[in-house]
Hints:
The chain is α/β, with parallel strands linked by helices. Helices cover about 30% and strands about 10% of the residues. It is globular.
Amino acid sequence: MAALLFFFLLAVSAVSAEEDAVIGVNLGTDVSDMPSPTQVMALLKAQNIRHIRLYDADRAMLLALANTGIQVTISVPNEQLLGIGQSNATAANWVARNVIAHVPATNITAIAVGSEVLSALPNAAPVLVSALKFIHSALVASNLDRQIKVSTPHSSSIILDSFPPSQAFFNRSWDPVMVPLLKFLQSTDSYLMLNIYPYFDYMRSNGVIPLDYALFRPLPPNKEAVDANTLLHYTNVFDAIVDAAYFAMSYLNITNIPIVVTESGWPSKGDSSEPDATLDNANTYNSNLIRHVLNNTGTPKHPGIAVSTYIYELYNEDLRPGSVSEKNWGLFNADGVPVYTLHLTGAGTVLANDTTNQTFCVAKEGSDKKMLQAGLDWACGPGKVDCSPLLQGQPCYEPDNVLTHATYAFNAYFQRMAKAPGTCDFKGVATVTTTDPSHGSCIFPGSGRRNSSSTNGTSLAPSSNSTTSGCLSQFFYSGGSFTSSVIIGFLVLSAVLL
């Protein structure tokens, strides 16, 4: 362990922070009613998206991107890789047709040569590095090599034993490709492109990976994953995989190549075998991912080091083969309507599809009733929420059960705290949703609905008539009870609740 820790200390500062992280979006086109390039540009501008990755080098799209300032990553499709990797002239022609013909009007900043070649097209792996070198040589000849980086996206599956990150390594059978590839990226000041999908890691883990850990939800310290070799704490799958890639490069004596995540996301819909492919989970993952990236948090191994990330993807692709989830990774439908409303308050100007700001905090179905009651009592007491609408005869009293009462209190606290990260947790029994939980005459704080007969539901300050400070038990639901000793113990521990 001491040797590993020493190795870690040598490598930890090798990647330097030169610029802030950015959020980009992938543009897939397997859409039955694909918007025109002009319509795509209109959506990108409306959503303040300044970075986009194409899976090809479509001429019409590149022309539409001209003079927009949007930074574009174009791609050499896998089916063209063998030809380019075997012929310098073919590579030069590709660059002339797809790059030189469009710059500088179109702001092409990177070329992704192939996509997950080692795992998806292994027979082309022997020519992968040649393809990168031939493309780069053509850029050098046109004096574009400093402006346009050349790399190739990898699936994170090429990293074996990714936890603990300090023991991760690339699949050794690919060393004849990875070693010269990394040396090429190093010599050209490029970056490692990596596709990271915590959704798939979570699905394959058979319950070993907690859903909250995959979704960037706040974790109590005792639930964080700890790398025993470095003592670094990991609060999400994404950071752990990025650091695993850094360590895997370190074991090949490469310590100064940054990482750009070329794909990451979460499906919003799945079939019966994919119960966690939901709107709320997709919203939670992408919202938290965007916030995490734009805060320049970095990773435990490289704190503060930018990890620019491209969300998969802009549109739902209904023509993609495979399971239901394969067709539902998009942020938008083909008509430009958001699939869900991102909760990005305070995350910057990227992706403005949260303009309605309609997000709520609700109690999780199936949660322990004692935990729900404890959270309810805390919100209505130390949390300073006005819970008077929950009193008998008031608009939110019915249905009289701890789940709906806790949902009201949790949401009122969440709204009162301006939806700050970590204010919708309540020891794991609460979650963020875009579905308005208001019902009947019970209007929840943050709702766009209005009720002329009652305003209690929209008050965030403690009511002057409320007796919550003297008697928390008035908010007990009639179907259960909770001892005062447990309440007192919970309040003592309230500092670690949120």
